[in-house]
Amino acid sequence: MNQEQLVHFREILNNKLNSLINEAIKTVDTMSRTEEENFPDPTDRATLESDRNFELRIRDRERKLIPKINQAIERINNGTYGICIECGQEISVKRLESRPEATMCIRCKTKEEEFEKKHNI
Ligand SMILES: [Zn+2]
């Protein structure tokens, strides 16, 4: 991967990290606000509960994704970005464009997913 590409991916990763953090702050903010509100109508209450489940799922996704993106930025810094941690081959730029935090090439990732599915992980 050349310098230009590294700069490009660093920018993508930084943007993604910023928007995830903003999203997380917003989610936490919404949750603490709804806790203070009172819902006497049980229908409203149910709606709120399902909304909250949705927010919790988003938080879970952010919680998992933020460290991955931080690690990817770290890998740009130490010169190992874009190299598959499994087989040591270069991860395709096309894959990194859609998953800039990817640590594995598509072949190893597919293998891992098949393994997880088979062993119910
Ligand atoms: Zn690989």
Automatic annotation (TrEMBL):
Domain DnaK suppressor protein DksA N-terminal: 5-76
InterPro entries per the UniProt record, alphabetical: DksA_N, DksA_RNA_pol-bd, DnaK_N, Znf_DskA_TraR
Keyword Zinc-finger: yes
Assigned keywords, A-Z: Metal-binding, Zinc, Zinc-finger
PROSITE patterns: ZF_DKSA_2
Pfam families documented for this protein: DksA_N (PF21157), zf-dskA_traR (PF01258)
Molecular function via GO: zinc ion binding
Renumbered zinc finger spans (dksA C4-type): 84-108
Domain Zinc finger DksA/TraR C4-type intervals: 79-113
NCBIfam families linked: dksA
Name by which UniProt lists this protein: RNA polymerase-binding protein DksA
